[in-house]
């Protein structure tokens, strides 16, 4: 397996609408039966275990399934992957709403970090949050000395400074959408240099009550954590001291993700209302099937409503979360295996989450 592709497998964000069912299946009377059907499909696709949570109107439901004990539930800890970018985007939006910065503010880091340029305009915070900065997906020097099973763990701020000096932009800032873990890592450092994890906890996860959404695996979380798998073998978790704002080393649970999705559905009930609304607003249009908010992707559902979504993954986990504000529905699926899309098919966790949301949205 190509190692750079392995590091960016959860970063394809252009195929959303094509994965949705053109005709939603007939609604089942029982929400548990519907969720179980999708869990069974996740196991059939090769996941050792899976957990799925949904919000359907006033009802919230979580269930898990496994090919052997233990069966996960809403408190089982998974690595979240790139869904964590939506947390970083929310932190940015909070800073903007508070007047501490602007979306069009240029990216600024300490002097030893050379910010690459192409064309007359500097990279802005909005460019980073919409993947339009022209940056590559990964720093050019990330792979040097990397452990393929924990590829970000060795990377330091000194390495980032050296990597930026070697980085060239593929397009002028603000002109082309190109998904970038590096870009979101830099966004986190711009918001709270060398204090990104504490900043996310202070600005986003604590106010929203996401107590198990963190890069620090507490002892009580370790006892509830699923074991990640790659090609049917257990693998270690990912750790990332520098680019964690990209979601590369964050943990969460289905219960926490449903709290987060509930805040997205009803931001007026959230202490972060204004910031959440700003993240969901389209800020860049890729094509008729994909617009970009701050962190979030927006694609059309078969109903004509908008699906707001993000997927994620690390070396042993794959995740996807999606919601529809108009219909008041949301779905999240988390599995403890690495997976990737092929030239013809999406990752199973993405296809299943989108299909489930399509069903919920239609009923």
From TrEMBL:
Keywords, comma-separated and alphabetical: Hydrolase, Signal
A Gene Ontology molecular function term for this protein is: hydrolase activity
Gene3D superfamilies per record? DD-peptidase/beta-lactamase superfamily (3.40.710.10)
Task: Give residue ranges for domain Beta-lactamase-related.
Answer: 36-347
Keyword Transmembrane helix tagged = no
What's the domain of life for this entry?
A: Bacteria
| Signal peptide from the UniProt entry | 1-26
**What SUPFAM superfamilies has UniProt attached to this entry?**
beta-lactamase/transpeptidase-like
What's the protein name? Beta-lactamase family protein
The organism that produces this protein has a lineage beginning with: Bacteria, Bacillati, Actinomycetota, Actinomycetes, Kitasatosporales
């Amino acid at each position: 397996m190509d190692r750079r592709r392995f590091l960016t497998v959860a970063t394809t964000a252009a195929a959303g609408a094509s994965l949705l069912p053109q005709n939603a299946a007939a609604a089942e009377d029982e929400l548990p039966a519907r969720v179980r059907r999708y869990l069974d499909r996740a196991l059939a696709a090769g996941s050792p275990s899976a957990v799925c949570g949904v919000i359907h109107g006033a009802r919230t439901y979580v269930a898990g399934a496994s090919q052997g004990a233990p069966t996960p539930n809403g408190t089982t800890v998974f690595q979240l992957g790139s869904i964590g970018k939506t947390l970083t985007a929310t932190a940015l939006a909070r800073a903007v709403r508070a007047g501490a910065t602007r979306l069009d503010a240029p990216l600024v880091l300490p002097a030893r970090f050379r910010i690459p340029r192409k064309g007359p305009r500097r990279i802005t915070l909005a460019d980073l949050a919409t993947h339009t900065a022209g940056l590559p997906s990964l720093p050019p020097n990330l792979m040097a000395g990397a452990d393929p099973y924990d590829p970000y763990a060795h990377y330091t701020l000194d390495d980032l400074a050296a990597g930026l000096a070697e980085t060239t932009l593929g397009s002028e800032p603000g002109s082309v959408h190109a998904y970038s873990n590096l870009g979101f890592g830099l966004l986190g450092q711009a918001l709270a240099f060398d204090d990104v994890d504490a900043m996310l906890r202070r600005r986003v996860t604590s106010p929203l009550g996401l107590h198990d959404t963190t890069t620090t695996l507490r002892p009580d979380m370790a006892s509830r954590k699923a074991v990640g798998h790659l090609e049917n073998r257990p693998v270690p978790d990912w750790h990332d001291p520098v680019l964690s704002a990209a979601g590369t080393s964050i943990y969460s649970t289905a219960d926490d993700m449903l709290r987060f999705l509930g805040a997205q559905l009803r931001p007026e009930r959230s202490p972060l209302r204004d910031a959440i609304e700003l993240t969901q607003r389209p800020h860049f249009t890729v094509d008729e099937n994909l617009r970009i908010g701050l962190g979030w992707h927006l694609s059309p559902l078969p109903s004509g409503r908008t699906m707001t979504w993000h997927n994620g993954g690390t070396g042993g986990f794959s995740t996807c979360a999606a919601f529809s504000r108009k219909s008041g529905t949301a779905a999240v699926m988390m599995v403890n295996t690495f997976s990737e899309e092929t030239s013809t098919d999406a990752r199973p966790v993405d296809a299943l989450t989108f299909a489930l949301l399509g069903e919920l949205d239609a009923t």
